[in-house]
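SAMPLE LOG
Freezer: B-3
Tube label: C17
Construct: single chain, 144 aa
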Amino acid sequence: MMAPTSRKSTTNRERRVWQTMWGMLGSAAAIGVIGLAVGLLKARTQGDTHDFLNGMTLGLLGSLPVAMGVWLFRAYRQMDEFGQRQQERACAFAFLVSMVAIMVAFAVSSFTGVQVPLWGLYVFGMLVYSAAVVRGAVLARSGR
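STRUCTURE (predicted):
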């Protein structure tokens, strides 16, 4: 006779959300790698080819934030109410912390003349959002 296991089976909804999240991660990585490869090729070219690859690099890397927004919205629509509230809290927290970081960067830039790249603020905001999502998942898993 086998002892019962306490492992919970994953539901269909959880499977869909995980598939969407992994799809988002894979797509973002693919766009980033292609953008990086095109950017590296751009450094070795001249003339019209250089201009074409420069436009491709800007287009690929510029589409990444928009694509992330679309993917996150898709994942949000597949979640239940509890998951949606967790995402809303994570987005609100990330927005607040990102706005504080932007104001600090603006103050530092205006007084010292040091330029803070815009992509750095975007990466910072996405890292804060990711940390808030992980924190919410850990708290939900522990039952708090």
